Structures are given as C-alpha cells and as structure tokens.
Amino acid sequence: MRLPFRKMHGLGNDFVVVDARDRPTGLTEEAIRLIGDRHRGVGFDQLVTLERDAAGADLFIRFHNSDGSEAGACGNGTRCAAALVLDETGRNRLSIRTAGGTLAAERLPGGLFRVDMGAPRLDWRDVPLARPCDTLHVPMAAEGVRGGVACSMGNPHVTFFVDDLDTLEIGRIGPLLERDPWLPDRGNIGFAQMLGRDRMRLVVWERGAGLTLACGSGACAAAVNAHRRGLADRAVTIEMPGGELRLEWRESDGHVLMAGPVATAFSGEIALG
Ligand SMILES: N[C@H](CCC[C@H](N)C(=O)O)C(=O)O
C-alpha cells in the first residue's frame, strides 16, 4: 500500500501530514511508530491526520506522537494542517475539531497563521492530575525545578518557571517529569524563563515525542500559567529553540490565540506492507 504524505513543520516541530478525508489510512499504532522512526521511516514529532468532521466543522484533525500515543491537541500541527487546507481551498478561515475541542484557524498577513486554541482547562480533574490539587502549585520536583503550574489545552501540560534555563539538564529531568505519578496520562513538561512581562524563553519536553524545537500547545500553556502566577501580561512572545510564537490569553472569552509560521519541507509516499 502507498500512502501520500506531506512533511511540514512549525518552527522545527515536525509533522507527517496524511489525508484520510476520503478514506481511512488504516495505519496501526505500530505502523505510526515505524513512520515516525527517524532512521527506518520518515521521522516526525507527530503524525497529523486530516479527517472529515461528522459534527459540521470544516475539518477534523487527529494527532499521534512518535511513540504512537494519541494526543488531544497539537498547536503547531494544527497550524500546519490549517495552512494546507486554507491553501487548498483559497479560504482565510477554517473551523476545526480535535479530540481536545473545537478550534478556529485563520490566515494572517505575511505568511503567518493564527489558531484560536480555545480556553485552557485549569481544574486538576481536567489536566488531569492524580488527586485533588491546586493546579497553580503542583508539588512535582526534579533537579533544578520545584512546584509546577498545570493546565490542559486539550492535552496535559505542566510548566516550571526557572531563573536560568541553561542550568537545567532537560534531557534527563524531562522524561522523569513526563511520567511523574501526579500525571496519570503522562504530561508535556514546559521549562520557562521569563525575560519580561511580555516575553519568555521556553523549552518543552513533549509527552510521547521528547525534546522538540517548539511546542504550540506548550506555548499556550506557558502563557496561561505565567499569567496565572502573575509573571506575565496576557500577550507574550515565546522564544523556543525553533523560533517564536505570539500568544494571547484573550480576556473577553478566555480563549488562547497562537500565531506563527508554517513550512512544507517535502512530499512523498509511504510504502506500507
Ligand atoms: N506531545 C503532545 C502533542 C503535540 C504537542 C505539540 N507538538 C504542539 O505543537 O502542541 C501530547 O502528547 O499532548
């Protein structure tokens, strides 16, 4: 079987995008892991599958991490999928449903795209955490970090604020925190260093994908969590290793808006079976 795909990325957070709007791809979890393998397959942080939406949105998008696990949200992947469909249709706006909620995407001037990622979920049950807890101060710790801020953007995030990111060994503490007992569904772990009330550095150890060059939902979570801790205004620029995203936790409706670039690297065909 041959499956066409497009290789895209948002600030280096990279995706294999496949189209299941006309017929299911039939990919098993094992096949997804193989495609995501950077030596035996194409390689990706996430597989992004375009599907028809039965509930009336223009598009349904499904996300799988490179370990094969499914995720309810993927900000950079949503931006890439939206850009692909907006270019295909010549439209400037798109309604999107994901397992984590209903989103809206729009084309901005200068080749940027903005996604309304919906409202963050702030209750411990919605992250989810393993037991009742104030999500502003989750008592998780690892070398160099203590006390995270948790929320969900349709997927679980914990953000740790530190004075100097360069002192952390994220490759070592990231996987420990991803599987912390406080996180029954595991979690995406953000490490943030404030540079001002409107700017921060962020590095994310992603659930099911590890260290990535950028993380869209992680940037949304970091913006929300910084404001909740009184460290940031509602509009912030987030600098990640792969580049910058503009975030706003909008006061009027509590939605998080994320704006940034997208890129297509190449297209190809996956040979399966
Ligand atoms: N690893 C995440 C999904 C991808 C998130 C990231 N690539 C983004 O841009 O939001 C999870 O398991 O919840």
Tally of helical runs: 4
Task: Give Rg in angstroms.
Answer: 18 Å
State the domain count: 2
In the CATH classification, which architecture of the largest domain applies? Roll
Mean pLDDT: 97
Please state the overall shape, judged from the principal axes of the Cα atoms.
Answer: globular
Task: Characterize the structure shown.
It is found in: Cytoplasm. Substrate binds at residues 13, 46, 65, 75-76, 155, 188, 206-207, 216-217. It comes from Sabulicella glaciei. The protein has 273 residues and is an alpha+beta fold. It folds into two domains: 2-117 and 261-271, Diaminopimelate Epimerase, Chain A, domain 1, CATH 3.10.310; 138-254, Diaminopimelate Epimerase, Chain A, domain 1. The protein is 16% helix and 42% strand. It contains four helices and 18 strands. It has helices spanning 29-36, 75-89, 170-178, 216-228; strands spanning 2-10, 13-19, 46-51, 59-65, 70-71, 93-98, 101-107, 112-116, 138-142, 145-152, 156-161, 188-196, 199-206, 210-211, 235-240, 243-249, 256-261, 263-271. It has an 18-stranded mixed sheet that branches. The protein starts with a strand and ends with a strand. The model has no long low-confidence stretch (mean pLDDT 97). Bound molecules: 2,6-diaminopimelic acid (API). The site of 2,6-diaminopimelic acid has 21 residues, from β4, α2 and α4. The site of 2,6-diaminopimelic acid (API) has 21 residues, from β4, α2 and α4.
